[in-house]
Amino acid sequence: MNKKEIEELIKFVSKAGVSEVSIEQKDIKITIKNAIKEQIITMAAQAPVMTAPVVMPAAAPVAAPAAPKAESPAKAADESKYHTVKSPMIGTFYRTPSPDKPNFVNVGDEVKPGQIICIIEAMKLFNEIECDVKGKVVKVLVDHATPVEYDQPLLLIEPN
What we know:
By secondary structure, this protein is mainly beta. It has helices at 3-16, 73-80; strands at 20-25, 28-34, 38-45, 49-55, 83-86, 91-94, 110-111, 116-122, 125-130, 135-140, 146-148, 153-159.
């Protein structure tokens, strides 16, 4: 079972409202328990047992805006020509591979499919996020070391 299948299983359990799911394959056993605000994942590979609690934050109340922002049609049409790279998971967004290294990409950089553009840390796993289009980075929408949600826009890329 690979990382993507485990992530999909976690999403399914949280959306389905199931309280517990256990899967056992060859030398791996996965149990996902879904409480109201907590998901617990237990993985056992042969002898060692690892438990990693994942606390899902409660939805914070959002204050109503004083006046809704009216986006100009030109700006909305302008942004629609860009490809949006979205977060494939919940985690922490990093622009660099380590604190002493340069950013994976900066505004103005040319990118190609398969190129690593950022890292998202989820449950102590650092997941390299690859670009899926060829183009130029127009805007980075998330600050370094900031929490991100599933499907949150990360970068805007002008396709070539």
